[in-house]
TrEMBL record:
Family matches, as PANTHER family: MARR FAMILY REGULATORY PROTEIN, TRANSCRIPTIONAL REGULATOR, MARR FAMILY
UniProt keyword annotation of DNA-binding present: yes
Keyword Cell membrane appears in the UniProt entry: no
SUPFAM superfamilies cross-referenced by the UniProt entry: Winged helix' DNA-binding domain
Keywords for this protein: DNA-binding
GO-annotated molecular function: DNA binding
Domain named HTH marR-type: residues: 9-139
InterPro entries noted in UniProt: HTH_MarR-typ, MarR/SlyA-like, WH-like_DNA-bd_sf, WH_DNA-bd_sf
UniProt name for this protein: DNA-binding MarR family transcriptional regulator
């Protein structure tokens, strides 16, 4: 695979960077409306999918396990997360979203308007092509 550094590639990279920045800005604003930091909202979103070992959360977020511990502590204090023993290995602690945590995470996701309107202006075929291209860029060939 060859590296392509041409004006079009650079423009695409800049556009992706702009999209990421706008998404993060809106995500932080949406999290703040729920009195959460962006990091707390991200952890809560991951925990809403499935109970997860603390170490795996740290890997997914690319941070130190002690940071995740502090975030889960704060979510737990608000009743949004809880710690459980892993039924498969009782030495492992899982963090999990509570019902209130799952509801908060769903509300947060639902309040993210970024790109919703512009994407709605695209046809189903255009959104499918965009999705497939983004998957290819990420190396997801499924």
């Amino acid at each position: 695979m060859t590296s392509r550094i041409d004006p079009l590639t650079l423009e695409v990279v800049e556009l992706i960077g702009t999209i990421v920045a706008r998404y993060h800005e809106e995500y932080e604003e949406a999290a703040a409306k729920h009195a959460l930091t962006g990091a707390q909202a991200r952890v809560l979103g991951l925990l809403s999918r499935a109970p997860t070992p603390m170490r795996r959360l740290a890997q997914q977020l690319k941070c130190e396990p002690s940071n995740v511990t502090g975030i889960v502590d704060r979510l737990e204090a608000r009743g949004l997360a809880e710690r459980r023993l892993d039924p498969a290995d009782r030495r492992v602690k899982l963090a999990a979203a509570t019902e209130a945590g799952r509801e908060t995470s769903a509300q947060l996701r639902g309040s993210l308007d970024f790109a919703r309107e512009p994407l709605a202006e695209l046809s189903d075929e255009e959104r499918t092509v965009l999705r497939d291209l983004l998957k290819r860029v990420l190396g997801d060939v499924s």
